[in-house]
Every structure is written in C-alpha cells, then in structure tokens.
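User: Hand in any protein.

Assistant:
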Amino acid sequence: MNVDRMLEMCHRDQWRMADLEWNREPRKFSRDDEIAIVQLFTDMAGIERLAGALFAQQEKRATDPRLREIFRSFVRDEARHAAVAERLAEHYDVHKYKTYTINPDLARFTPHFVNAIRFLSDDIANVYITVGELVLDVALLRSINDYVNDDMSQAAMHLINRDESRHIAVDYHMTEYYASPAYLETLASRPRPSLTQRLRAWWTFANVIYHLRPFGKAVFFDPMDRVDPTGLRIKEAFKRMQLLGLKPGVADRPFVKFMTTIHSLFNHPIAGPLFGRVLIRIAGLDPRIMVQLYTDAECERAQKMSFEELAQDALGAKFAH
C-alpha cells in the first residue's frame, strides 16, 4: 500500500451527513421488518463508535506521522458513520413501535475490546480489528442495505462503504507490517513487560474472550441470519481472514498460531465433539464459520498474492453473492 496515496484519499474522500438527501420517503415495511431495521441501524451506530475508539488507540500507537493522520481520519469516518446510522434509525422509525437502545451485549463488550487494543500486543489487536472490518464491510453493511432496499439506504451505504474500503486496505497493510522482520526487531528491542503488565494483558484477554461470543452472536451472526439467510456473505468475510492467516509471517505469530490450533481442534474427529462448545466460546465464533472455508486452489492463489492484492481481493468480495 502506498501510504502517501492512502493519506491523500483519506483527505479527498471526506463527506458530510448533510450531503445526503434526507427528505426521501422510506419504503413501506411490515411491523416486524420496521422494528428489525431500526434496531439494525441502532446497533450499527454502536459498532461504528466502537470502531472509532479502536482507531483512536491505533492512532496513539502509530510511529509514522502519516499513519497517525490516516487513523485520525478513520476516527472521523466512524463518528460520521455512527451519526448517519442513528439518523437512518430515525428515518425508518415511522410508526414508533418501541423505544430502541443499543444491544446490551454490544454495550458490555465495548469497554473490554477498547482495553484489548490498549493493553494487548499490536498484532493481536490488529487481528480483531481486521476481522471486525471484514465482517462489517463484506457482509453486514451490504446485507442490511439489500434488506432495506430503498434509495435512502443505498445513498448512505455507498458513502460508508467507500470509507470502509480504505479501512480494510490499511488493516491489511498493518497485518503485513506486524508479520515483518522490522516489527519483530521492534518487539525484541522493547523492555520485557512487568508482571503487572502481563497480568493486566491476561485479564484483558480473558474479558474479551468471555464477552466475545455473546457479542458476535447478537451483533453479527443473528442479524446476518435475518438479512442474508444464505450465510454466504459472512462465510466470504471469514474466508478472507482464514486466507490472510496462512500468509508467511502472519501464520508464525503466536496469536494466529493459537487461533489456528483452536480451529484444528474444532475440526478434529475426536477433539471436536469432545471440546467443541469450549472451543467455540474461546474463539467467539459461530460453528458454521469454524470449518475450512477456502479450497486448496484458493489457498494456493492467496499464497502467491501480495498483501495489497489480498486486500483488493477482499474488497472485491463485497460484490459477490
């Protein structure tokens, strides 16, 4: 990824909520659909604010001033996305059937995830961020848009998706860096964490693991079952993450090895049935996407691609299915 070009795009492609025409009539929905749509946009606002908090932490960690400015622009993006999602929730709340609040599992998970970005190592934090952005961009946002299926949603989601594409490109760029010899040298040069720091990191990780499964189910998997019953899009998003985890350097990082082991045990003919529920809770994932989602041919192809090409391939998945 060309960092200077990405920074230029971040400045050039900014937009305002006022750029959207909010006087459009919403499509007519059944009572059940209206309630579901308003809740989806309400939760989307919470997800976008969480993403903004994560990018703010990445901004603090970045040593390259250009990357700091890129992450700062992402914080602005996510604040705008959250505001638009809230406005969309109001737009589609035609009949005021109920009072809507952010899903409690999302609210409970948010502070623990932000702490994870603060206290866990850079590469672990980046794995979780990349997974979240892939699921959000490749699967959830476009499926919500298809479910709503009117001009107002289309216009808003077009601009939000343009921003999210930049975010994914940078996620892959950071993944490449955290798999590089330069990052390993940086790690080796840092002082060994104190016992207090190590205990804090383990406590943080334990809280993320504890809250991750109910969060993922309530905010990603259950909504995706409604807006994309085929399940193809969320599988597409996680397939991209699986392929990314196979890249040389990435596959060697301790956390990726840990997750690969969880995946292998879940798919083992003996360990899977015995420990499947525990493994699902640790991974925080739906069992449907804990199987191998890629073919041997896709694996071979991914191994030959650069990280930038993988990012572009993932973005292309937004238009599949």
